[in-house]
Specification:
This protein has 5 helices and 12 strands. With about 200 residues, the chain is of the alpha/beta class. The protein has a 6-stranded mixed beta sheet, sandwiched between helices. Helix 1 crosses helix 2. About 40% of the residues are buried.
Length: about 200
């Protein structure tokens, strides 16, 4: 089974998929406490509730950002510990890639963006099966830039005609990471942080 954890925003997403990528469970928690106080507890409760042994987990998937500093650190540390302790592969994806996962087969120009603070945004573009690197752009410039794209997907940015991400990326991230074989090294995996104002 594939365990997917997402802590890039104020939502903790925990999903479990079977070997055929069918969802066994997927839950989301709004951040009412720091993730460090809830992630292990909630994960343990879910495994007990669905009668799943830790030994049944064959891989762990984590969102490496861009995202919030503390949330990413907690999520990535948890995923690294699980991968190491259970001796299973660790997969890691970026938020900006998972945000457009459901739209990649549309064969259109796609832009994803996340608020980076200081009136900037982390941006990634996808065109004809080619993706850009993640880059920073002033939000004012981005507001004009998005007009060149067919689909724009954003998180914590108030732009018109954009799809707003409001949920966890745990499912799309897991599907993306497994499909593209995005295996990470538990000893070297580092998060991509969002700067603060």
């Amino acid at each position: 089974m594939i365990l997917s954890i997402d802590t890039f925003s104020d939502i903790l997403g925990i999903c479990l998929l079977d070997k055929d990528k069918n969802i066994k469970f997927c839950v989301e928690y709004r951040q009412y406490k720091p993730f460090s106080e809830t992630i292990i507890y909630e994960l343990d409760l879910l495994l007990k509730k669905f009668e799943i042994s830790k030994k049944e987990i064959t891989s762990v998937v984590i969102n490496k950002g861009p995202g919030g500093y503390t949330g990413l650190r907690v999520g990535i540390t948890t995923a690294k510990i699980l991968a190491y302790a259970l001796n299973i592969p660790l997969y890691a994806y970026t938020s900006l890639d998972a945000m457009c996962y459901s739209y990649k087969s549309c064969n259109v120009k796609i832009l994803t963006a996340i608020n980076a603070g200081k009136n900037e945004a982390y941006v990634k573009t996808f065109e004809k099966n080619k993706a850009s690197e993640i880059f920073l752009m002033k939000q004012k410039k981005l507001e004009e830039y998005i007009k060149n794209y067919d689909i724009c997907i954003v998180k914590n940015l108030n732009f018109e005609n954009c799809i707003q991400i409001k949920d966890s990326l745990a499912i799309n991230g897991a599907l993306l990471a497994i499909q593209e074989n995005l295996i990470g090294n538990p000893f070297q995996l580092e998060p991509i942080y969002i700067r603060t104002n």
